[in-house]
Write a structure and sequence with these properties.
70% of the residues lie in helices and 1% in strands. With 324 residues, it is mostly helical. The chain folds into two domains: 153 residues, Tetracycline Repressor, domain 2, CATH 1.10.357.140; 151 residues, no CATH class. Strand 1 and strand 2 form a beta hairpin.
């Protein structure tokens, strides 16, 4: 009997922990990995002294995202109760957690963030964390109800996340990084909207998000092609022109010429994602599931190898890679 009671208590505790994880949206934390892109393109990937601060900043950024998730769930708990999909993943709506628990978690998270920001003593990082929180509020309360502004607003938050990673380790913020991160997020977000329509149909998509009243598949397809073109052009320009150094366009990488050979792979990845949007909408709706697509994995590995060689290996003797 005691063993059974202990087992039930353990299961109850595990369910509560799982509900807390759902409220914090820990499954969405992978989106904050964009913070690490700055150290890669700054050539400091193997500077291990900066990782403790960067990992702490990653946690702070994740918790900042959770603030908007919690407040959004509190605000929408009544409407979530009648939504067949959301009620399964919303512990406040399905009664697994109380409002009091959510408020306590919110206060605790805010306290942790304040202490962490005092530790960093970095004004730019503080501003970017506030922008992440403000962007989340703007999206959840206003932007997600406005056609096109919802996609742009959602994509903008990735800029603040990427720049927060640069700020905490004091590397220069490149305009290439800012624009490319934004265009990539815009491309993925548009693809997700199309995948919703492909998978759910227009009527079910409207029930999922009211904003789909303003969208149609042909309209979103046009946006997807526009975003894909802008993204590829921006990446190609970066490969040809190189990073910006003190306001001038100069090749600051030893193997700059090699990077241009990655453009066909980048184009393949863009094509592949468009193909997935049309044929595998379940994957396109959740970008983290891209690891299940062999084409994306293969292309991603090839692209990463070329970029790694360009930034981190000295092969200047191979003159045919250089433009001069």
């Amino acid at each position: 009997m005691n063993k059974r009671i202990n087992m039930e208590k353990m299961l109850t505790t595990m369910n509560k922990i799982h509900a807390v994880f759902q409220l914090l949206r820990i499954r969405q934390y992978y989106k904050n990995l964009i913070m690490f892109i700055g150290i890669f393109f700054a050539g400091r990937l193997f500077d291990f002294s900066i990782y403790p601060n960067l990992f702490l900043a990653f946690i702070v950024t994740c918790l900042s995202s959770s603030i908007t998730y919690i407040i959004n769930d509190i605000k929408d708990r009544e409407s979530d109760k009648i939504h067949p999909e959301k009620i399964k993943k919303r512990p406040l709506a399905n009664g697994e957690l109380s409002i009091l628990v959510a408020i306590i978690l919110l206060i605790l998270i805010i306290g942790i963030i304040i202490v962490s920001l005092i530790y960093f003593k970095n004004l730019l990082f503080l501003v970017l964390i506030l922008l992440i929180i403000a962007n989340g509020f703007a999206y959840n309360f206003f932007l997600k109800k406005i056609a096109f502004a919802d996609i742009i607003g959602l994509s903008t938050t990735y800029i603040w996340r990427a720049l927060a990673g640069c700020a905490v380790i004091n590397v220069r913020i490149s305009p290439w990084l800012t624009i490319t991160v934004f265009l990539t997020a815009l491309f993925l977000a548009t693809g997700k909207r199309i995948a919703d329509l492909e998978l759910l149909g227009l009527e079910n998509a409207k029930n999922h998000k009211k904003i789909y009243d303003s969208y149609s598949a042909p309209l979103l397809n046009n946006f997807l092609i526009l975003n894909a073109t802008a993204l590829f052009v921006m990446y190609t320009l970066y490969c040809v022109l190189g990073p910006l150094e003190e306001g001038s366009i100069v090749p600051v990488m030893e193997n700059q010429g090699l990077l241009v050979y990655s453009t066909p792979i980048a184009l393949y990845l863009i094509y592949r994602f468009i193909y997935i949007v049309k044929t595998k909408p379940k994957i396109a709706r959740s970008p983290e599931k891209m690891i299940k697509d062999k084409g994306m994995i293969f292309g991603g590995i090839l692209l990463a190898i070329i970029v790694l060689i360009t930034f981190y290996l000295e092969i200047s003797t191979l003159q045919f890679f250089n433009y001069n």
